[in-house]
Structures are given as structure tokens and as C-alpha cells.
Amino acid sequence: MAARCQPSGRRRSSSTASPCTCAEPATTTCRSSTCYGIPSSSYDWIDPLALGGGIAVDLPGFGRSGKRGDLDYSLGGHATFIDRLLEHLAIERVRLCAHDWGAAAGLVWAMRDPARVERLVIINGVPLLPGFRWHWLARIASARAIGEVVVGLGTRRMMRAVSRRASVGTIPREFVDVTADHFDQGTQRAVLKILRATTPGVLAAAGHGLGSVTAPALVLWGAEDSFIPTRFGAGYAATLGDATLEIVERAGHWPWIDRPQLSERIVEHLRG
């Protein structure tokens, strides 16, 4: 599912509200699109969308999108979903902003047809690079039998505790509440399938064509991310065709939430 959004300057206060103010569908040649990380949803992008507009995508298995057991939750499957969604919306080119798992899926899509990407922002993305190892919680969750128990313990309290380990300061309660609201059995199943199928070797192999993505790219990386070290931000910046790295001090895995002023930096780059 995707929401088309226009700049509104308004933030929704209800955790069950749509992630942004929606506009009437319209055919266009280029739009800003955003993808998020595991296990959250398009709501992550409410502030950048309020500033710059665009489309926030819920990948299959997450947020308000379908969560059937027979869907393809692989890296390639999510990339194909992005492609079909853009075709359905008649969007030819995009200015793409993506985080965590959304960055990996978005880049796999971009490598299939690099000319469709006009500008790019990658934020603390799951690395399509050698040397990556999933963080401790993901490794536990990927284990057979134990993983089902671990994801089943994904309560609001547990999510707040985990987010504090990967953030600087206090993650807004609403951010965690919206994630918890959507963390149902379908999302838990999708998380398990992703973690079990997407080994470090699969990720590294998927990134062999990163240099073909030559759109001007901004790689933003929270310096205190306990999930994905900053060296992978440097790796993305060195491997993409035309990228600039900005390390964000006093920020963790969600730097634009730890440092709200970064939403303006994101929108500035996407607008060019």
C-alpha cells in the first residue's frame, strides 16, 4: 500500500491515522518515494512527507499492506513490489529515500533500471556489502523455533526497550505505538522469512551492481547506531556511483527522528 502525499505542515496526533495528508491520485513523471526498515511502516516518514510531499510505501508484510503467507518477502520480491507499485501509479522516475531494509530493497530495485532514479537518500541502510552481520536480536530471531518466540514477545514495552538501545535520547512514544499496532502475526511472519532467507552472503551478492546507480546520492548515517556500524555508510558512499556521506553525531538508527531537523536536509537533497 502507498499513500500519495502533499506538503501540509500538519502532524497527525492519532496513532491510527494515515501517515500523512493524502492528495488525489495523479499521473506524474517523477515523485519522491520513501521506504522504511524492519518492522515499522510508512508512518516513519510523516515529518519528511509533511515538508516535501511524496509517496510512503508499505512493503508487503508491513503496515497496511497485504500480509498473506504466500507472498514473496525476499529482497527481490520487495524490489518487484516497488516496481509494480510505481507502474500502477504511472510513475516513471523517482527521488528515492530509504532506510534499513527499505534501503536494501530500494537499491535492488534501483539497480534493475538505474535511469529511473533521479536522486537518492540512503539512511542507515541494511548493507548490500561484504562484511555485514545482522545485529544480535535479528540473529536470535532468525533461529528456528526460538525465532517464533522472540518475535512473539514484540510487545510495546519490548519495542521501546529495543529502540532505546539503537537511539539517542527518547524515541517518541507515538513512533513505537504505531509500530506495535501493526506488529501482528502477518508482520511477525514476514520478519522471520526475511531474516532467515537474507543471509550476509545474499546481501553482499545483491550489491554487485551498486556502482550502476549514478543518481546524486546522500548517505546519512547516525553515528551511534548499535545495529549497523558507520563503516557501512562509508561503504555505500564509496560504492554508489555518485554519493556523499554525512555522519550524524548524537543520532542512532533513526537519525531523522533523533535529530528532527534532518527532515529538512532529506527534503533539500531530494529536491536538488
Quick rundown:
With 272 residues, this protein is α/β, with parallel strands linked by helices.
Describe the structure.
With about 270 residues, the chain is of the alpha/beta class. It has a single domain (about 1-270), classed as Alpha/Beta hydrolase fold, catalytic domain (Rossmann fold, 3-Layer(aba) Sandwich). Helices cover about 40% and strands about 15% of the residues. It has 12 helices and 7 strands. It has helices spanning about 45-50, 75-90, 100-110, 135-140, 145-150, 155-165, 175-180, 185-195, 200-205, 230-240, 255-260, 260-270; strands at about 1-5, 30-35, 55, 90-100, 115-125, 215-220, 245-250. It has a 7-stranded mixed beta sheet with strand order 1-3-2-4-5-6-7, with helices on both faces. α2 packs across α3 (about 100-110), α4 (about 135-140) packs across α8 and α5 (about 145-150) crosses α8. Residues about 1-30 have low confidence and may be disordered.
In CATH, what is the homologous superfamily?
Alpha/Beta hydrolase fold, catalytic domain
CATH class: Alpha Beta
Widest sheet: strand order?
1-3-2-4-5-6-7
Q: The CATH topology is what?
A: Rossmann fold
- Annotated CATH architecture: 3-Layer(aba) Sandwich
Overall number of strands:
7
- Helix/strand class: alpha/beta
Main beta sheet, described?
7 strands, mixed
What is the average of the pLDDT values?
87
Helix fraction, binned, reads 40-55%
**Rg from Cα:** 17 Å
Separate helix tally: 12
Low-confidence stretches: 1-28
Shape: globular
Q: What is the domain tally?
A: 1
Strand content: 15-25%
Whole-Å distance between the termini? 27 Å
What are the secondary-structure elements, in order, as H or E?
EEHEHEHEHHHHHHEHEHH
